[in-house]
Design a protein that fits this description.
By secondary structure, the protein is an alpha+beta fold. The chain is 40% helix and 23% strand. Strands 29, 30, 31, 32, 33, 34, 35, 36, 37, 38 and 39 form an eleven-stranded antiparallel beta sheet that branches. Strands 18-19-20-21-24-25-27-28 form an eight-stranded antiparallel β-barrel. The longest helix is centred in the N-terminal third of the chain and has 35 residues. One of its GO terms (molecular function) is oxidoreductase activity, acting on paired donors, with incorporation or reduction of molecular oxygen.
Length: 1148
């Protein structure tokens, strides 16, 4: 029988059915076919046309052609019948998921969950919750889909360490691939690093003013409609889309302003609604897009998005937004591909969608609860109203409100952004989720709406109870399941995968479930519950991992302060020597030197933490002192500072000038809550701070490794592993007088009344335990003397901590308690009798070698600057010069400018100057500048010759004006006219000077013979865009010189910094402990006036700017700082007059 005869025979229908079965069993059972739906349809009809052509080639009549058409159609239908019959039988009875319970129809087709979405009007999550209540934790939701409500699935499926990948739903935007849609983990990781820059702590602080402005607009719009019904869902969408449009496209959609829905929002809502309906039938989307009449709106939508991206790429916003970082990465690509542009467009779309939709939905549901449960509104207002007492809302303080955070958390718990869960695909080999094996290539969802309303995880789960996140944590059974955004992040550098843990522990770990514990700000701590293979030996049920903070600012502090290094090195080098000490067992320590990331894996000594405010019981205090004595004995026997040089810290406490500032803030913060007698003790301690610590340094008291913060918050009592007490948090350890720790404990961890009754007995307990193991005798009298001398340490800690950590009600109570107890400890031990009297502390002076260029670090903003300022009041002119070498940027900065009320502002402005060599000669494109210390610290000459620019209006410089070209020449000699002054808090020095020389341009020339001046030199990382400040250097007619600075870091509730000096020949230089400057600026950005107060001198400077020479400072990442600089006249509150320069660094 030939092929033609066979195709025309009745048996061909049977063969067609069998072909369909074979296609399913050999082809369609494997791989992903959702995206190929249009291709499959095309292939099907193309095959039929080819077959029809083959058959009709041999037919003599139109009747035969018609019969051939019917025959081919029937064959096609038979293939489809065979394919779908095989699919349905296989899915219904033989599929690898057949053992999982669920509705029968869910086994056969994804049309089943789609029908639930349609029936419930997109409330599929409620249908899924009902299915879990009927069938249990594992429900077969579709032929190849499982919904899993087992709490252990959160970590197994959604964590960064999961072996699962994203499912086929994420192909829905192709050919565009946004970050969210990237299914390749390596690609996603690379792109995520770029996004992390846009959403880092610093970037978020920079966005804050814009968000506040839109929030104000929303509040005004709502206020304007207060007497009419308001659709808050619309307005919250207007608000969130406006904010995210600004951060994505560099401009708002103006919906809050106009009160009208924008096309983008309407179209996006339509697209997302369709995506919700077709979430489980993703093959529908490619079919729709292949049909022109159905694809019109889709094309129109992306045409709009692309146009917005094109516009944004052409513009340079005044301030960086999220898109700035994505665009910067795109611009680095060489060559740029069509795919990379498509991905950039998709990421811009994602910025708007990810931020706006979730924000609007959360705000809507939160306000629903506040409106329907008035007691919640009253409770929330009790906590947030105090933050709105001034006209200007402190967004930083608001963002740190734990009670507001609790309301948001509870909203997200009851109404998670992805209630049915995100789509994930199990690895080909399958995986264990809890106690259940899930086959490979299975689509899985973790329905957060169901998990968050499960009594196994949250008590009273259907109620809105924000106190479960604050005062009533017992309402939360398992906080680890609360991951509202379907992602569990543990560590940036070290992934705590079962493979890594197996290597670290020496056991076969097959499952790991990390839960964040503790509330530390500097580091992240996780308890990791472990699962072991059935055929292997089991290790500990859980371990604890400590790592660097995920917050960039906290991490930077931990690195710069050495806290991370000390703790890592303690557990690496010292803990192994303390095998019988009250220290956790250390399984593994890893540290990446380049990034600063680290992980310390240790035993989980799940003990009970005491209360520093309530104070220790006699049993706790006795055990703590006994274990401390035993620990110190072990340290004196086994630990040597010669072998561990990192322990030796020249000064493990804040510098004196810092403590003066901290004490001032402490008094201001707590006011009348500080008893007068305690305030007097505190003042005496601060006055003698330098002398006190000099006496400690000179003491012959026994030394060893000091914990540094031995109090109840860092002690765990009781443990099933056998240790009665475990001491943690070794970040503050240092080599010093060991009696610091027992004195610190007795002063802070017990009440004064308790200490007076039991203190002597507790010290004897410590002494006995110490003597039992110490390599040399330490008498009880030495212990008493040491406790007496160190009774001030708790006071020092309370004052310091109150200034450096986030302010909370409990924190205030704790710090006051610590201070009061320490003061009483000082009184009881008569420690004031051994407190050395205050001694004057000489100011620091620079060394001659400091005049030269210093070695530079690899910090991108490392900067070494030389400044020179001149004022000639008789000629009514001033000059300032700056060389700023920025070795890790493309160019350095050089500026030399003259200004005055009767002349234009003239000089050289170059932000891309060639980096000079050590001779500090700058060979600019059209100028040459020199800098030379002819006699170090005594005479310095600086010159420039070449082309410059002139501005009739100096404010034009701030606006980016070009100026007109001029020829410039300068030769100035600075001769020291006072005491050189080295800063204590930074690598920088200042020198008052007399100045002679010339400055000329074109046919104008000025000669200086008796001008006043200042020069300074600074080196180290300098981020101009991280702080605002006022810098000044003034010279009074009576020969007094001053240098005063008021600075404040941007973002957060950071205290201001006030430093400087006032000096006069024949009198001691007086260092300032505080400086405050209040400035008035004109609309054009120039200074109008500034008032400066200082301490300890009761002086006030009234400053009137006269000549202006400003700059506009642009960071590479788009940040902008306006830098108006002016020479000025001043009048003091005691009638003296003078001149000098001042600058305002103002970040936008």
């Amino acid at each position: 029988m030939d092929v033609l005869t066979l195709l025309q025979s009745p048996q061909s229908y049977l063969w067609a059915v069998l072909l369909g079965v074979v296609l399913h069993l050999t082809l369609f059972r494997y791989g992903e076919w959702d995206s190929s739906a249009p291709s499959l349809i095309s292939a099907f009809f193309t095959t039929q046309l080819l077959l029809l052509g083959f058959l009709t080639a041999y037919t003599p009549s139109w009747t035969a052609v018609l019969l051939a058409v019917l025959h081919v159609s029937a064959l096609g239908m038979c293939v489809l019948v065979g394919t779908f019959t095989s699919i349905l039988i296989y899915r219904g009875f033989f599929h690898r998921l057949s053992r999982f319970p669920g509705p029968f129809w869910a086994r056969l087709s994804t049309i089943y969950p789609t029908s639930l979405s349609v029936r419930s009007k997109l409330h599929l999550y409620e249908e899924v919750q009902a299915l879990h209540r009927q069938y249990g934790d594992f429900v077969r939701l579709g032929p190849m889909e499982l919904s899993i409500a087992d709490p252990r699935a959160i970590q197994a499926v959604n964590s960064a360490q999961t072996p699962c990948t994203k499912g086929p739903w994420y192909n829905g935007m192709r050919p565009r691939v946004a970050l969210q849609n990237s299914r390749d983990k390596q690609e996603h990781s690379h792109r995520r690093k770029v996004w992390d820059r846009g959403f880092g702590a610093k970037s978020l602080r920079d966005y804050e003013p814009r968000v506040v402005s839109y929030t104000t607009g929303l509040m005004n719009a709502i206020e304007a409609q207060k007497d009419t019904p308001l659709n808050v869902t619309d307005w919250f969408n207007f608000y969130s889309f406006d904010v995210m449009g600004d951060l994505a496209f560099g401009k708002s959609f103006d919906m809050v302003k106009n009160g009208v829905k924008h096309y983008f929002m309407n179209s996006l809502k339509t697209n997302m609604t369709m995506a919700g309906y077709f979430k489980h039938v993703v093959w529908v989307a490619p079919i729709f897009r292949s049909i022109p009449i159905l694809n019109f709106e889709h094309k129109r939508f992306w045409k709009f998005v692309n146009s917005q991206v094109d516009e944004r790429m052409k513009m340079k916003p005044d301030k960086p937004d999220v898109f700035s970082y994505l665009l910067e990465e795109y611009e680095k690509q060489d060559p740029k591909t069509a795919q990379s542009l498509l991905n950039l467009q998709a990421d811009a779309y994602l910025i708007v969608v990810a931020g706006s939709d979730t924000t609007a939905a959360t705000l809507t549901t939160l306000f629903f609860h506040l409106a329907t449960e008035p007691h919640l509104l009253i409770k929330l207002r009790e906590h947030v109203d105090p933050l709105f007492e001034s006209d200007e809302v402190d967004a930083g303080a608001l963002s740190k409100s734990k009670h507001l955070d609790a309301f948001i958390n509870e909203t997200l718990r009851l109404h998670p952004p992805v209630p049915s869960g995100v789509q994930r695909l199990t690895p080909p080999e399958g995986m264990m989720i809890g106690d259940t094996f899930v086959p490979g290539n299975t689509i899985v969802y973790v329905p957060l709406y169901t998990v968050f309303r499960d009594e196994r995880n949250f008590k009273r789960p259907e109620e809105f109870l924000p106190e479960r996140w604050t005062t009533n944590p017992e309402l939360t059974v398992d906080a680890s399941v609360f991951v509202p955004f379907s992602s569990v992040m543990v560590a940036a550098q070290f992934e705590l995968s079962p493979k890594w843990l197996s290597k670290a522990l020496g056991f076969d770990v097959v499952g790991a479930r990390p839960v964040r514990i503790g509330t530390g700000q500097i580091g992240e701590v996780y308890r990791i519950e472990l699962e072991y293979g059935a055929k292997t030996r089991a290790g500990p049920a859980s371990v604890v991992a400590k790592m660097a903070s995920l917050d960039a600012d906290c991490k930077a502090f931990g690195l710069s302060s050495g806290l991370y290094e000390r703790e890592v090195r303690f557990y690496q080098e010292v803990a192994p020597l303390m095998t019988t000490g009250p220290i956790p067992t250390v399984y593994r320590v890893e540290r990446d030197e380049e990034s600063g990331e680290f992980v310390i894996l240790m035993s989980d000594n799940a003990g009970r933490v005491g209360s520093d405010i309530s104070g220790a019981t006699l049993e706790e205090a006795s055990l703590a002192m006994s274990e401390l004595g035993r620990l110190h004995g072990l340290i004196l026997n086994h630990v040597s500072v010669e072998k561990h040089g990192w322990m030796r810290r020249t000064r493990p406490w804040a510098p004196t000038e810092n403590m003066v500032e901290y004490w001032k803030r402490f008094k201001e913060r707590y006011g009348d809550r500080i008893k007068p007698e305690h305030r007097e003790i505190g003042q005496k301690f601060i006055d003698s701070f330098e002398a006190y610590h000099a006496a400690l340094d000179a003491s012959s008291a026994p030394t060893g490794l000091v914990h540094g913060d031995y109090r109840l918050d860092n002690i765990l009592f009781g443990d099933s592993g056998g240790l009665p007490l475990t001491l943690v948090d070794w970040q503050t350890c240092y080599w010093g007088p060991v009696l610091h720790d027992p004195s610190y404990f007795l002063g802070l961890a017990v009440t004064p009344e308790f200490r007076r009754e039991h203190g002597e007995g507790l010290l004897k307990i410590y002494h006995e335990a110490l003597s039992a193991s110490s390599p040399y005798p330490i008498s009880i009298h030495e212990c008493k003397a040491g406790v007496r001398m160190h009774s001030f340490t708790g006071m020092r800690q309370a004052i310091t901590a109150a200034s450096l950590v986030e302010r909370t009600t409990r924190g205030d109570d704790l710090f006051l308690t610590m201070f009061e107890r320490s003061c009483e400890h000082v009184v009881d031990t008569k420690a004031l009798e051994v407190l050395p009297p205050p001694v004057p502390v000489p100011h620091l002076e620079p060394k001659e070698l400091d005049e030269e260029m210093h070695p530079f670090s690899d910090h991108p903003l490392h900067n070494e600057s030389w400044y020179f300022d001149v004022v000639d009041i008789d000629q009514q002119v001033g000059v300032w010069v700056r060389l700023g070498v920025i070795p890790n940027q493309s160019g350095s900065w050089y500026h030399a400018l003259i200004c005055g009320p009767h002349i234009p502002t003239v000089g050289v402005i170059d932000f891309e100057a060639p980096h000079p060599a050590k001779d500090l000669v700058v060979h600019g494109g059209e100028y040459t500048a020199t800098h030379e210390a002819e006699v170090p610290l005594q005479k310095y000459r600086t010159t420039v010759k070449g082309k410059g620019v002139s501005f009739d209006d100096p404010a034009a410089i701030l606006q980016g004006g070009a100026g007109r070209p001029v020829d410039v020449q300068m030769d100035l000699l600075f001769e020291t006219d006072g005491q050189p002054y080295q800063w204590r808090r930074a690598t920088r020095y200042e020198i008052p000077c007399k100045v002679t020389g010339t400055f000329s341009w074109d046919d104008h020339s000025f000669t200086f013979t008796k001008a006043r001046g200042q020069r300074d030199h600074s080196w180290g990382p300098r981020d101009w865009w991280a702080a605002d400040w006022v810098w000044t250097a003034f010279h009074l007619d009576d020969g007094t010189h001053s240098h005063l600075v008021h600075a404040k870091a941007r973002g957060g509730d950071y205290p201001h910094l006030g430093v400087g000096y006032v000096q006069k020949e024949g009198e001691p230089l007086v260092e300032m402990t505080d400086v405050k400057a209040a400035a008035e600026m004109a609309a054009n950005g120039l200074g109008v006036s500034t008032t400066i107060t200082m301490a300890p001198l009761p002086l006030t400077f009234y400053v009137k700017p006269v000549g202006h020479a400003p700059l506009c400072l642009m960071a590479k990442d788009g940040r902008v700082a306006k830098f108006p600089r002016s020479w000025a006249t001043i009048t003091t509150n005691d009638g003296r007059k003078g001149v000098g320069w001042l600058e305002w660094n103002i970040n936008e």
